[in-house]
Amino acid sequence: MHSETSRLVFVSHSGEDTWVARQIAREISLKGAKPFLDEADIDVGSEFEEGIRDSLDAADEMLVLFTPWAFDRPYVWAEIGAAWIKRIPIIVVLHGLTVMDFMSKPNAPVFLKKRDIIKLNDIDQYINQLGSRVVTEGGRNG
Fold this sequence. Notes:
Oligomer: single chain
Distance between the termini: 13 Å
Radius of gyration: 15 Å
CATH superfamily: Toll/interleukin-1 receptor homology (TIR) domain
CATH class: Alpha Beta
CATH architecture: 3-Layer(aba) Sandwich
CATH topology: Rossmann fold
Shape: globular
Largest sheet: 5 strands, parallel
Number of strands: 5
């Protein structure tokens, strides 16, 4: 059961990684937060960029799924920039890349390189921490 005050997690990913992003979104939902996935949450035929902006405006945090494909996606970088300007937490999850691969990418901003970076296989740690944030907020809001 989700309240209107559910924590919104914006899941940024490349189109190549949609299936994996859906699994992450499912886990986020199971912890009581609301995931935003562009392909699931923007209606066909609607203004794509407006939906992205509105969701980023409402987001409490962002999870970025970085894969070899994500580095070449302009929307991933635009979404990260918007989250950075908004000063919300940005969680970097790597799949198909090592931390060293990520750190050696010249187009990866320093502000992302300074964060805790996790591998997809370690995402349960993030999901559990998210669940704790949702429970804490539920106590304050409800």
